[in-house]
Amino acid sequence: MIIEFVIPALLTIITASTPLVFAAIGEIVVEKSGVLNLGVEGMMIVGAVGAFAVTVKTGNPYIGVIAGAFSGLLLSFIFGFLTLYLYSNQVATGLALTIFGVGLSALLGHEFVGQTINSLPKLNTPFFSDIRGLGPLVFEQDFMVYLSVFMAILVTWFLMRTRWGLALRAVGENHDAAHSIGFSVTLIRLFAILFGGAMAGLGGAYLSLAHTPLWVENMSAGRGWIALALVVFASWRPWRAFFGAYLFGGITIIQLHAQGFGVDVPSQVLSMLPYLVTIIVLVMISRDDFRIRISAPACLGKSFHPHG
Amino acid sequence: MDLTPRLELIGITKRYPRVQANNNINLKVMPGEIHALLGENGAGKSTLVKCIYGVQKADSGTLIWEGKKTQVTSPNVARRLGIGMVFQHFSLFDAMTVEENIVLGVSSKVVKAGIKERIIEISSRYGLPLEPQRYVHTLSVGERQRIEVVRCLLQNPSLLIMDEPTSVLTPQEVESLFKTLNRLSNDGVSILYISHKLQEIKELCHTATILRMGNLVDTCNPKNETPRSLAEKMMGRSLEKPTRKKNSQFGKPQILLKDLSYRAKQSYGTDLKNISLEVRGGEILGVAGVAGNGQRELMNVLSGEELGNKAESIVISGKNVGNIGPNDRRSLGMVFVPEERLGHGAVPQMGLSENAFLSGFTRMKLANNGFLRKLKTDKYASNIVTNYDVKTSGIRSLASSLSGGNLQKFIFGREIIQNPNIVIAMQPTWGVDAGSAAYIRQSLINLAEQGAAVLVISQDLEELFEIVDTICVIYEGRLSSPKQLEDITLEEVGMLMGGVIVNSQEDNLLNGI
Asked: Is B69 helix (H, G, I), strand (E, B) or coil?
């Protein structure tokens, strides 16, 4: 009886959390290189509409996923070009990117409102999927859920174990020093921004292809901002962000169920819970002042002028 | 004996829009030679070195590397040729470990060839001990410099350029650096050594090339010169040393710190622990110490930029001021000259007149019911410019357009004209050329002679020994007990700066340890 109730809840939690994982891990890479891109929400929603449109046209959600990543990447290229080559202010440009992305997605998505698609298929692992309870939870997800876990592993490995990951952190830590050593600050940052864009696009694609296989205007509903907050509260660590995303997703779903059960708490308070709990928990685990100083990229948000 | 010079420059000329930075410079560095490059600020040393290292491109002239005419178009080309450079401002990453910093600075080929063994080999051969797993922000400046040097040496350079390497080191650290450099020189590595410190150059270098205003004035053997003769060649006129009358009759205590403890607010700061000191009217007290031992915190707490102390822990002219901010302290007759000239001592993008207003408005009464008194402010600013020999095109020019020495003279003038009875100055002549430095030191001495209490926080021991009456050392946030200058030697101060407890006449100089 418990399994009948808990498993579906856990399944929805995974679906609710995966978009946040993509967006937050992408943004970690961007911020580690010293760039603050506040356009996550915009890139996400453009990724969502791109993925949905291409899936409608081709009928193939996998091509849709690629299109979603590519849409996010294209939008982030605008940000990268403006901030890295024209030295525009990162905060203002990021905010503008979000506003632009929301508007653009509404325009592009106009003809797709109300259309339906085949959502991203769940994978079926022979034998394992039949395990009662655990089977569907662990072995019967769509491939993007596994991809999100893989990306968390990949990004951690890249940042901590590879020379280019070290270079990327160095650029975020002290861009002048990295430049004088001979690294191309601008190029490394551009790649980080494009990666972040593609990841936000993937998060968006997951929203419109798996979470709710529909296109609704403004359907990212602030998830990009949540992802941004997760990055800071997770003190720029991929696994903490991953955990934070699941915490947020989890409480969102649980409070929905609680509202459904008619728990005697005002629904507004319940709706606040995911935000409150996520912030409190992540602040608690990241409160070590010293570790924050070590993890926060010292050049975050600062423009780099190679000849200045 | 190899007679091909490692590096030869012929007729190097470089012009910037407004200045002739290098004019027809010739220079020869032999294998194994330690060659000094001397000159005042703006004499063109950095430009010349940047041309050699490929950061700048010379307008004309020839660079001959080991007998072959060569174009050095970028630092990467320079490194491939075998030119290494240790910059004055380190290219290090504070939040990373020593090992990560070294790995970042060398090519992946070197890393693959077994970097750990090479680090150990180089650090033991040249006496450069390192702890690979430590985070850089926990290291002293001397240790940080070692990382830079090791990083350079891993590339097997045959010419090492060092830009003012000793300006931030303790005397002991300087000594060990010199041992390293001599060993490198014996191994045939040439060293191009830039410094302001003439005594060092006399000790260390085989040849000295002296630049003045972009021109080469002399190439000489520093062993046959005196620091004074070298300085005069640099300046092109005779050097006036600050003079001061012996004074042991001090007035009442003007600054009194009583058991002041303070937790650092900034990242990587140093906490202050039980600091007590006293500066009397007419006295100059020097606080020596290696950067990062709490000087910044001490300065901020004294100026009131950081509060959070008990009111009675800081007493100024008999009043408890521990809990009041900078402007209230200024109105009690206290003035400040912070370490960082641009961005702290002055707003770079504001004119001199506005900068004068910002610090002077309380004591000079430059504001009237919240309105600016523009004429009075301008008069005050012009006063500073004329009386303190500030070279500028006018009081409207931006603070950032002044050279370091000129801006420092302006800032000093601005504070001194306010007729203070207490002056707190940090690194007053850091990066200032010899002429301006002498001028600034003389004005500090004059102030004390007029009865002001002066507190100077500095890393430059020569400077402190030239001007102070009393000296103490700050180390890891603790202050040693003050000594009359006659009762302590330069070596003892150097040891205190390195954290060594010195026993002199049975008492510990470091109290509280």
From this structure: strand
